[in-house]
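thread: overnight batch results

M.L. [08:02]
morning all. the overnight job finished for the chain we discussed friday. pasting input first so we're all looking at the same thing
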Amino acid sequence: MIICIGAGPGDIGYLPQRSAQRIREADIVAGFSAVVDVVRPLIPVTAEVIQMGYRDQVAQLEVVAQRHHAGKKCVVVFMGDIHFSGFQYLERVERACGHPVDTIPGISSAQILASHAKVCFDETTFITFHRRGDLTPFKRHLVHVLRDQRNAIVIPCPWDEARSFMPWHIAGYLLENGIPAEHRVEVWENLTRGDAEWHGTLAECVNQRFSDMSIMLIRTLHPMGSQIEPSNK
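M.L. [08:03]
and the structure it wrote out:
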């Protein structure tokens, strides 16, 4: 058995109960080191822990697949929710195993941000640049999202200076592509604390610097009005 779970935004208190139970029952718990550390209090002392990073993930997932095919109960943990920004990693897990695997969703940082910032996903689009490959289609999509008068929750790309697309890069790109400078922006770095690190405009964001753990909200200039009936008061 092998199952992939979303471990939430870095706080074990946000881990779904079903996922916690799967970890407690596992023979093998695998994932990127930072994610494994989040769930470590739940890992049985008898379980084998297989940690990995960007450079050795393919090789380490092959080891996990071998354990799975040998009949071990394997859990692969993802940060946040698999279906928000983990699909490339999920594809690597399935490639290593040679078949589709089961998943359990987690709570994404985008969901935590939406809760803190009081924005509705009906009126908001989530875009992640935390991926390998060409970012250009996703950059264009972000421009269209804001032109369509929707909020945007954005995870930057922090990997290296050659292809980084951090909040200040994102703000500069949007300004260069005609998005108004007065869009309100919030950048969050510690979501479980509940306060944004920074508030300002797109124009001001260009001159700010944030850590690799950043997630940003770009608010629409034209929020949707209330959709409920008028009060009788």
